[in-house]
Amino acid sequence: MAGSSHIHPNCLTVPGLYGSGPDHWQSRWERRGDVHRVDLGAWDNPHRSHWITKLDLAIAYEREPVILVAHSLGCLAVAWWCALASADRRGQVAGALLVAPPDVELPDAHPILRRFAPAPRTTFPFPAIVVASTDDPYSAIGRAYAFAAQWGADFRDIGALGHINADSGLGEWPEGQAMLAELGAAPPDDARRSASHLIAGRRHCAGGTYRAK
Q1: 98-108: b or e for each residue (b if 16 or more CB lie within 10 Å)?
Q2: Could you count the other beta carbons within 10 Å of the beta carbon of residue 6?
Q3: Helices (H), 87-155
Q4: pTM
Q5: Phi and psi at residue 131, to the nearest 5°
Q6: Sheet holding 11-14, edge to edge
């Protein structure tokens, strides 16, 4: 779809705990009409097996390869799904953009996040990019880098943007759309021009526990 004004008809967003509100970049992308949210359900009280099943069903429903666009706890849902899904189902995924994965193994992590611990040590069979912030209160950037390494994903440090959510003031987040293009989707030209703003990975630390988006 090179040159299209849309992202991609087969992009599926996978929000985290409490879902993504109307000002979140995921919700903004969904309003374009060619990006769709996976309805994992139980947004405020998720269980790992339930979310994995719902994600698997959503992927199975698609007739074409999909790109998964996950945020926060949604990243762990994708990782667990990848660890447990069949080879055929994993073959339906063309790539994954994993933004701000929380450290579910922190001793003081939110009890709901602990349901997704430990983080799977599974190498993804498809291209993936892990995106992290230097001041995310829910994960040290070094831990995000470790997630990327164990999943076989590229790693992007995008500076001090908090939890990379609505509070980060990203709007349509063109830098994220540019990264999505690297996975095979086709973002608008303005997003493509913003790719030069991305910062390659450095390790810093930022601790903390989880709260609502």
Answers
A1: bbbbbbbebee
A2: 16
A3: 87-90, 111-114, 141-151
A4: 0.83
A5: -115, 130
A6: 35-37, 11-14, 66-71, 93-99, 128-132, 154-157
Residue position matching structure tokens 């470790």: 146
Q: Which two tokens stand for residue 31?
A: 């309003």
d(CA 122, CA 161): 27
Residue 24 to residue 172: CA distance in whole angstroms? 8
Structure tokens that stand for 56 in this block: 């698997």
Is there a contact between 118 and 148 (Cβ–Cβ < 8 Å)? no
Average pLDDT over residues 75-92: 97
- C-alpha torsion 114→119→120→126, nearest 10: 120
Task: Give pLDDT tens digits for 152-162.
Answer: 999 999 999 99
Which segments within the chain are labelled E, that is strand? 11-14, 35-37, 66-71, 93-99, 128-132, 154-157
Tokens at 122, concatenated: 């599974």
**CA 41 to CA 62: how far, in whole Å?**
19
The answer to which of 93-97, 112-116, 132-136, 187-191 has the lowest mean pLDDT is 187-191
Q: Which CATH architecture has domain 11-197?
A: 3-Layer(aba) Sandwich (3.40)
Which amino acid would we find at residue 29?
W
The neighbouring-strand residues paired with 157 are 132
Cα 188 to chain centroid distance, Å, stands at: 20
**41 backbone dihedrals φ, ψ, rounded to 5°:** 75, 170
